[in-house]
């Protein structure tokens, strides 16, 4: 889904959806509370917080080996890493017992959840209606001038040498790419000359086969507003997930694992 720029801040479309759904839940709870029903505001806040915590802990549990090796990365939530099932479990852990103890709150809670789910369904349908695909008819070149196309299933990383988060995540991404040779990982440089890219690779000691995109056509065509961006692409060339900003090892592994399910 398309990213959104809020001043100097970049927000991915997926995160914006969940922010809007949360705001609708809170708004519905506040409106129903003002209309004479029991106060639903404390429940809405606690349930949302429990859902966020559950989503994070669920993802950490799925990728325990990564976080055991680097415990501090548990707190790098800006790199992504949330499990929907964990969020649902956390939300339900607060909501269901309260429904049982305070049954007079059940109708209002149900209406607030229904409002949030309705918005989520609408936004999800809009997202499916605006699916994005890699340009199948476009031919790219590497530093040696060899032609290549981007094909799925695979991962496309948009980067530039002037971008600090790109430089931070690159060694990790190259390690994961080498560990998963059955899935291509394309490192598509945005807007830099071959000489600048060669100089960066030489000074950094990184070994890779970058793809050149001097006109930044992929960023423009896919609505990417900032670097780095990591795209997970299915076998039909459809972008099924876009991670904006620096990606964690766990999030990359999860995306690779999901793509491997499409390999016959």
UniProtKB/TrEMBL annotation:
GO biological process terms, semicolon-separated: cytochrome complex assembly; lipoprotein biosynthetic process
Record InterPro entries: Lgt, Redoxin, Thioredoxin-like_sf, Thioredoxin_CS, Thioredoxin_domain, Thioredoxin_ResA/DsbE_sf
Keyword check for Cytoplasm: no
Keywords: Cytochrome c-type biogenesis, Membrane, Redox-active center, Transmembrane, Transmembrane helix
GO molecular function terms listed in the Swiss-Prot or TrEMBL record: disulfide oxidoreductase activity; phosphatidylglycerol-prolipoprotein diacylglyceryl transferase activity
Keyword Membrane carried by entry: yes
Subcellular location: Cell envelope
Positions of the Thioredoxin domain: 108-261
GO cellular component: cell envelope; plasma membrane
Gene3D superfamilies attached to this UniProt entry: Glutaredoxin
Signal peptide positions on this chain: none
Transmembrane segments: 16-32, 44-64, 76-96, 108-127, 215-233
Protein name, entry field: TlpA family protein disulfide reductase
Species for this entry: Falsigemmobacter intermedius
């Amino acid at each position: 889904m398309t990213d959104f720029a809020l001043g100097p801040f970049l927000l991915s479309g997926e995160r914006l959806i969940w922010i809007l759904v949360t705001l609708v839940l809170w708004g519905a709870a506040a409106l129903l509370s003002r209309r004479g029903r029991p106060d639903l505001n404390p429940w809405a806040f606690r349930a949302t917080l429990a859902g966020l915590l559950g989503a994070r802990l669920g993802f950490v549990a799925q990728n325990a080996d990564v976080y055991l090796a680097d415990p501090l990365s548990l707190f790098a939530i800006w790199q992504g890493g949330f499990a929907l099932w964990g969020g649902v479990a956390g939300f339900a852990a607060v909501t269901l017992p309260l429904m049982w103890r305070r049954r007079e709150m059940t109708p209002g809670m149900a209406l607030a959840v229904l409002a949030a789910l309705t918005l989520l369904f609408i936004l999800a349908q809009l997202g499916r209606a605006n699916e994005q695909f890699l340009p199948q008819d476009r031919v790219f070149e590497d530093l040696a001038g060899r032609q290549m196309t981007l094909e799925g299933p695979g991962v496309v990383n948009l980067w530039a040498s002037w971008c600090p988060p790109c430089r931070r995540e690159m060694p990790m991404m190259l390690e994961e790419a080498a560990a998963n040779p059955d899935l291509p990982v394309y490192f598509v440089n945005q807007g830099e000359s071959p000489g600048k890219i060669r100089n960066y690779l030489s000074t950094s000691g990184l070994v890779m086969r970058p793809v050149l995109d001097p006109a930044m056509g992929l960023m423009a065509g896919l609505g990417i507003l900032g670097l780095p961006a990591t795209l997970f692409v299915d076998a039909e060339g459809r972008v099924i997930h876009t991670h904006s900003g620096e990606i964690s090892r766990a999030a990359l592994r999860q995306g690779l694992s999901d793509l491997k399910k499409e390999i016959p």
